[in-house]
Structures are given as structure tokens and as C-alpha cells.
Fold each of these.
Amino acid sequence: MTTLLPPDFADWLRLREPADAAARSAELVDVVRHRLPAHRPVVVHDLGSGTGSMARWLAPRLPGPQHWVLHERDADLRALAAAELVHVAADGSPVTVETCGSDITRLRAADLADAHLVTASALLDMLTAEEIEQIVTACAGHPTLFAISVLGRVEFSPADPLDAEFAAAFNAHQRRTASGRALLGPHAVDATVAAFRRRGVGVQVRASPWRLGPDQAALTAEWLVGWLDAAVAERPELVGAVGAYGDRRLAEAAAGRLRVVLHHADLLAG
């Protein structure tokens, strides 16, 4: 998978990390705990790990010694992850971390052979159907926790007549074909669940929405700008409406009057 990350992508990952942490399903983590070996170090492979936020969130919630393998193609993100390692599990046991410059869309089962758990966060909606099949094939046989996958539903309070039009354009952009890759966007969760079930693997799905209010005004504004940019890139005819709409929404966010629920899903397979 070829990606070109914007220079401020790491800043975006840092900004969203608290919202991701608040949204992820604690219920699925409780299930994961009971599926891990009790008497040996647990090996966790994190796919598309970015700056390592999933490890920072999950490792302190799991007991026992752990070794995390962070799969991330971007060298700058790997360096940031290595600089902010998590070292202690829930019971005080040691946590070790290594980074790996893997192309996760080419993973094979052998690459995950030592895994007791596979994780990812904010990944599935950026993949194609073929890439999801490849990843699911590699993960089948291991408990797999995929968190914060976009579902294509957003709720604003107060509502605006243009909300639905921009949301539809954004969702279309998420499903665009980029560099020959037909992205699944909001359809990725259903595709992943179906891929696991075709292999006889059970899947549990839980809601993990961002709930953005006055305390997350900076994140709301950054997300909104990117959301609108993507919508207009997909439907250029919206450029005439985006200025006034965006200014209105940004002013509401700055004043603490805007609340956004951005729907995601977490899934646990195996």
C-alpha cells in the first residue's frame, strides 16, 4: 500500500489520541483479557500503528508481561512511537516494544505466527476489499481487536440544513478510488466482519463514537476542516456553500456551542 502522509499527520494523530482513547470499547478489552495466555509474555502485533497510541492505551489495561510489535511503514511515525514507549502493564509487569516497517496489506500468516493478539486502530476504512481479505487471512487464528473504524454517520447539535449534503460528499470521498485502490470507507466494518465469518471466525462489534463538545473544541475544528476539504474535493459544486457553512460551524465550535457525535465501531474477532 503506497501512502503519502501530510507533514502535519503526526500532529493530527496526537490531537485525536484522547478522543480515540475515550471512545474505544472497554467491554471488548474485558473479553480480550480472558483470551490471553496467563503464564508467558503476551505478544501483540499492532497494524498501522502510527505513533503507537493503541499500545499506549491498551498495554496498561492488560495484565502480565507484554511484547508489542508495531507495524508502520512511515519511518517518522515509527520514530515517534519508539520515543514514547509504554513500559508497564496493568499489574506492573514489563512491556517491551519494537517497531517494524511492514506493509500491512502484504502480511502473511507467518508474519503473525507468534501473536497472541492482533490490534489496529483507525485503519480499516482506509483499506480496499482485497487488502481486508489479505489482512483477515493473516489474522485468522488469533484474537483480533480492530478499533475506531468510521461508519459514515455524524450527528451535529445544533443541526444545519447542509449537514447531510456534506456528510454524503465526505462518505463518497472515503469510498473513492485513489492510486488505483478502491477504498471501502464506511463499508469496511461490514466487509471485515463478513471476511472473518467466511473463515468460521466469530466477531463481536461494539459502538465507539467520538463525542465532541466544548472540551474538544480544537479537535472538533481540525476534524471539521478536514471533513469539509474532503467533501469539496469529492463534490466541487459544494465550494459555493462551504465557506459560510464552515465559518458558521467553526464559530460555534470556538464558542463551545457545537457538539458532534462521530460514529465508529470496534470489532473483536476470534
Amino acid sequence: MSLHADAVSTLTGWRPGTEPQEALRQAFLGFLAAREDACQRSCEPGHITASALVLDATAENVLLTLHPRVGRWLQLGGHCEPSDATLVDAALREATEESGIRGLRIESTPLHVDVHAITCSLGKPTRHFDVRFLVRAPVGAKPVRSAESVDLQWWPVEALPSNVDTVPELVDLALSRYR
């Protein structure tokens, strides 16, 4: 199965809990139907990306990166690569690369989707169709900042930084899976 086919299958099988998320899910599926290259970063109108909300073993802290281009604290993640067989593979690879943490565990059901405008590695304005997954770090995990980040740190889920995007919504969704 190709990454494109996996993205279609993953999003077809996912049932989000809100109408806005369902509308975005349908938009993602429409984009995938229109573009066979939708999972490739070379797709100029936009491309599928995969990200990971990383919680510590206690679900009391979330690992966020201070993104150099965006200038905000975000979940880990990024572009799909030709070596990624699935969106889960892409999100887990990105989380591992950006956190330096081995032994991360990822849930295969998407947590959230989002579309955002960005000028990424193409050097041109485009859109990221981001599929977000929940990832758990092992007990005692110590992150190591990669070159892709200005800063990387654990934040208490009850005391997130002020310059975040959709992170509070992602944290709420993640914590609701454990209640």
C-alpha cells in the first residue's frame, strides 16, 4: 500500500468527534482524491504532513518545540518522506527525530486534523494538511533538541505557554482519551 493509499484509508476510517473536524476530514479526502502527489512535499498547492502530540508517561506534561519559522510552541512533526509507509510511520519518525527519545508509542487513530498556510522548504507559500497523532513517551524520557528546533521542552498540560496554536485543543483531546 502506498502512503497516499494509507492516508485515504486512515482518514476514511477515522470518525472525529466534532462537526468542524468532520468537515476538515472530508476536505482532506477531497484533496487526496484530486492529487495523487498529495503526500509529497513537492506538491505546491499543499501536502499532507504528520505530527505527534507527545505526552510523558504520566500524561501530566507535553513535549513542545519552539518552531524556528513559525515562532510558536508546537507539537512535533513535519513532512512525509518517501521511506514512510504510513502516516503513523511519518508521525513517529518525526517525533523520534525531533525529540531524540527512543521507545515512543503512537496511537494509530488520528487525534486531530488541521490545515495551515506556511512557507516551507519549497520556498513558496503552500498549505500543510496536518494529520495529528497521540504519542506517549516512556518513563523518564529525556528529550534532546534537534537542529530543527529553537527550543524543546516539557510543559505541564495545565500550564502551557501563551504562544501556541492549537496545542490546548490537542491536549484536551489527548487527555479525554484517558478519562
